[in-house]
Structure formats: structure tokens, C-alpha cells
Amino acid sequence: MAKWGEGDPRWIVEERPDATNVNNWHWTEKNATPWSKDKLKALLQDFVISKSGQECKIVEVEKLDGEATANNRKGKLIFFYEWNIVLKWSGIVDDEDVTGKVTIPNLSEENDIDEVELTVSVDTSNNASEKLKVFMYNIGRDKLRKQLQTYVETLKSDFAKGLILPKKGEEQNGITTVKPDKETVYASGFNRQKIELETVTSGTKQTGLKLDVKTLETVERFQCRAHELYDALTRTDMVTAFTRGHVKLDLFKGGEFVLFGGNVSGTYVDIVPNKKITQTWRLKQWPAGHFSNVVMELIEMEDHTELKLTQTMIPAAEFEATKTNWSRYYWDSIRSAFGFGTFLY
Q1: CA 183, CA 79: separation in Å to the nearest integer?
Q2: Using one digit for the tens of pLDDT, what is the confidence trace for 55-100?
Q3: How far apart are CA 340 and CA 236, in angstroms?
Q4: C-beta atoms surrounding 298 within 10 Å
Q5: Report field, pTM of the whole predicted structure over 0.85
Q6: CA of 55: how far to CAs of 33, 73, 264, 266, 344, in Å?
Q7: Which of 91, 198, 210, 275 qualifies as a FRET site for 161, CA 20 to 30 Å off?
Q8: Residue 132 DSSP one-character state
Q9: Cα–Cα separations (whole angstroms), residue 139 to 37, 133, 225
């Protein structure tokens, strides 16, 4: 089997002006990687983000790793693209220069633009930098997503022009007529398709279903100081260590977090360093749009730290699994990863 993005030469038909690929039956492929790099740099380099007198600028595309191809099979366009991007940004607030980075690890056809992850960080943490970090998080991410959307739309329109060859007999006055690129576009994935559906308006409006919920309360003990346990729950490197995977942590009020490959997600409601973390929290398989409320209180004792967890609004059908997963994937993993110990009494 051919490697991703390469294509099996037995099935690849090079573009030819005489339209030998009759009726677009064979697989034709264009390498879109060089074009994509130029386009992404043009869209992102020196891009200015401004609102209400505040302004930041993308000063460098530090990293642009990935590849892209556009393919035609039986008159249908199929696009593959996957990019890992790191941008450097700068701004001024309170007469102080602030610099930081925006990391975009998952720009691909597998994710809609609003699902693409953008992580904002600052090079030095202080009051001024935190102000701009919040600005980049709340304003900058949306504006950068629009630039990424422009790249995707242009890839599927301008770059792919001519990939759909004229069908047999499609000539007028000796001039070949190129069929407009309005064919159905498919993402790769596992038979995932983007399909335009007709909007149907019903006469009645469903108000939703009542969900049976439960509350989980538990106290866990760790052989460490409160600030050490707080770090294990909030520092990206430490959370990555005990979850054993990529994490997203925007540690400020209203910031988002994503753990365990997207299976756990939510937002920070309130943060009291070394003492209390309040979150909205959900599992991916829960009913769409439903979040529980999580409060973690850290109480430092003489020889250990207690963590009191209160989680409300857990779907009743998911209660036992949620309780087990907290123990297995959070508390046991934290003790194991950082040597915080397990009490035997």
C-alpha cells in the first residue's frame, strides 16, 4: 500500500493537456506542501491582532511542519493536510514589551476549524504579560482561526483548479471547457464526509430531556506539600507526565483544558493557587453540551495534604465509571508519577 501523501504509481495519472484521464476515473494527485507553506506564511507572518486599542503582532513563523495534497478520484476532490505550527508574537502593554508563542499542533482535515487547538503562552510571566496572554486567548485565537480558515478554503478552491479534468466530449469551438470546481469535497478520516444537508424546519420545538444526575464527594490523601500537589494538577509538564499524553491547560479564569486525548475537557471557573481549583468538567461520551461542576480543595496537614473533591451534575448512568476513572487516571497516576505515596490506614 502506498504511503500517506505519496500515492501508488499504478493508480496515479499525471495531469495532461489532452485530458487522457477520461471522465476523471483514475486517481490524480497534486503535492500541495510547498504551496501550503507559502500560503500559511503569507497569512500568518506579520499578522496584526487588534481590538479596543490593544494590539499584538505575529513576528515569526517559528515552526511549520507538515504536508498537504489535493486529489481527484472519479470527479471528487479529496484533501489531505496536517500541520504543526508555532508562531512568535509580541505586543506592548503598560509601556512594557511582551513576547510569547501560539502553538497549533493539529491543523488537519480531521478537525473543523473551531476544533483546532491554539495554545497561548508568554515568555515571561508578570502582570503585563498576563494581560496580553488573556487578550491573545480571547481575541487572538479567533482571528488566527479565520486566517487558518482562509488557507483551507483557498486550498480547496484556488489550488485545486484544474485538478478536475474535462470529461470526454466537453469541448466547445475547439476550446476545452474546464468544469468548475464545485464537486463534493470529502475529508479523509474513517469514511468521514462533509455533506451539505437541506435544512428542515419542524413545526414543534423540542425543549430537551431531563437528565438524572448525581454528586461525587471524596477525600484523597497525598504525601506531599499542598503547593506540590497544586503543581501536579496545573503545570503542563507535570500533568503531561501523569496523563501520559498531550494536554492543553490555559490556567486562568475562563481558560480551557483538554486531557486524555480530548476525552476530558472543560474550563477554569476559579483558581486560588495552592488551595482551590473550580472547573466545569465533562467526559466526551456525556450528552452533548452537558458539563459537571468540579471543586478541588487542597488542605495541607502536618504530614500530608488532603484533596477534597466535590463533583456535581454527573449523569447518573456515568457515575460509577466517573468515580473509578478519577481514582485510576488521576489519583493513582499522580502518586505513581511523583512518588506522593499511598496511605495504608
Answers
A1: 12
A2: 999 999 999 999 988 877 666 777 888 999 999 999 998 888 999 9
A3: 18
A4: 22
A5: no
A6: 31, 45, 33, 28, 55
A7: 198
A8: H
A9: 25, 10, 37
Question: 278-300, pLDDT tens digit by residue?
Answer: 999 999 888 888 999 999 999 99
Question: Do residues 60 and 45 lie in contact, with contact meaning Cβ atoms separated by under 8 Å?
Answer: yes
pLDDT in tens, 313-339: 999 989 999 999 999 999 999 998 888
C-alpha 10: how far from chain center: 36
Please count the other Cβ atoms lying within 10 Å of the Cβ belonging to residue 33: 15
Q: How far apart are CA 310 and CA 40, in angstroms?
A: 45
137/148 Cα distance (integer angstroms):
16
Cβ atoms of 27 and 71 within 8 Å: the answer is yes
C-alpha distances in Å from residue 38, one per residue of 34, 44, 165:
6, 10, 25
Residue 20's alpha-carbon distances to 54, 59, 64, 183, 264, in angstroms, are: 56, 46, 36, 20, 51
